[in-house]
Specification:
By secondary structure, the chain is mainly α. It is about 80% helix and about 0% strand.
Length: about 290
């Protein structure tokens, strides 16, 4: 009996050591994937810091939209509709800028494809989803200076932002930026070159400015525009930011379409679908080159 007990004990220790080695191996793999994501993100952020023209232009345009358009509407309508147009435009442009900036930043995938850099990436011993996630994280980090600049501009022109609303803007901004990056991957998966991307993206985003209510509320729309609006991903990004920003405010009912939980419940699966489908088709197009 003692011999059998000793044998069973040895087997148990062997199994335990095997599981320990498996766990350690999994941790090493996970650490490698995270390191790859961080390296790709750092590459995109470094490119932005070197490209000052892009950094300046991506900050100036939101200022023009908020200051000129929002200021004009606010000066002419005041609070007659039940809300302040300047604050409405501020939240809309904030969400739109982060979503669009991250989505269009993914054009770097196509540029890397033309330079054959993407093929080198996708043959590396790293998950293709890790590579795409790293690029999305990088473009999200690129969008953060824009977010901070827009918030600072909002404070300068007199938009009341409490500490809680400031935290809400940063948190929702990160969600919106990640969502925009995944959407950009999905679109770019079906485009062959940078020229096509530069032509298609404005066509995709310009209608969404109005369908998402970036500059004006869209509580009431004709049925055909209502359908188009519900298809537009930017609608949920803008409404998510506004829902959290206006929470507890009397303006909430005039400017928010759905509660933040509903919008997040739509954004989360949409992000996963865009990421998985976009990555699949992008990698397949790389293999077919």
């Amino acid at each position: 009996m003692d011999r059998y007990a000793a044998h069973d004990g040895a087997d148990g220790r062997a199994v335990a050591r095997g599981r320990l080695h498996q766990g350690a191996g999994a941790l090493v793999i996970a650490a490698g994937e995270l390191h790859s994501i961080a390296a790709l993100a750092q590459r995109d952020l470094t490119k932005l810091l070197r490209d000052r023209a892009r950094l300046i232009t991506t900050i100036i345009f939101p200022f023009i939209f908020i200051g000129a358009l929002g200021g004009t509407l606010s000066a002419n309508f005041g609070r007659a509709p039940g809300f302040d147009f300047l604050t409405l435009t501020f939240t809309g442009v904030y969400a739109q800028t982060l979503f669009q900036s991250t989505a269009m930043g993914m054009i770097s995938l196509v540029i890397d494809r033309e330079n054959d850099f993407s093929q080198e990436l996708f043959i590396a011993p790293v998950s293709r989803y890790t590579i795409i996630a790293g690029r999305i994280l990088g473009e999200t980090l690129v969008a953060l200076p824009q977010a901070l600049a827009i918030i600072a501009f909002g404070l300068v022109i007199g938009i009341p932002i409490s500490p809680g609303q400031l935290a809400a803007l940063i948190g929702t901004g990160l969600v919106v930026a990640f969502f925009g990056g995944a959407f950009g991957v999905l679109v770019l998966a079906f485009l062959n070159n940078q020229r096509a991307a530069n032509q298609v993206f404005p066509f995709i985003f310009l209608p969404q400015f109005f369908l998402a209510g970036v500059f004006a509320p869209i509580q009431v729309l004709p049925w055909y525009l209502e359908i188009a609006s519900r298809i537009a991903p930017l609608r949920y990004a803008v409404d998510f930011v506004r829902g959290v920003f206006y929470a507890g405010s009397p303006d909430y009912q005039h400017v928010v379409l759905e509660d933040p939980a509903t919008n997040f419940a739509i954004i989360a699966p949409a992000f996963v679908i865009c990421l998985v489908v976009g990555t699949f088709f992008f990698v397949r197009s790389e293999r077919n080159r």
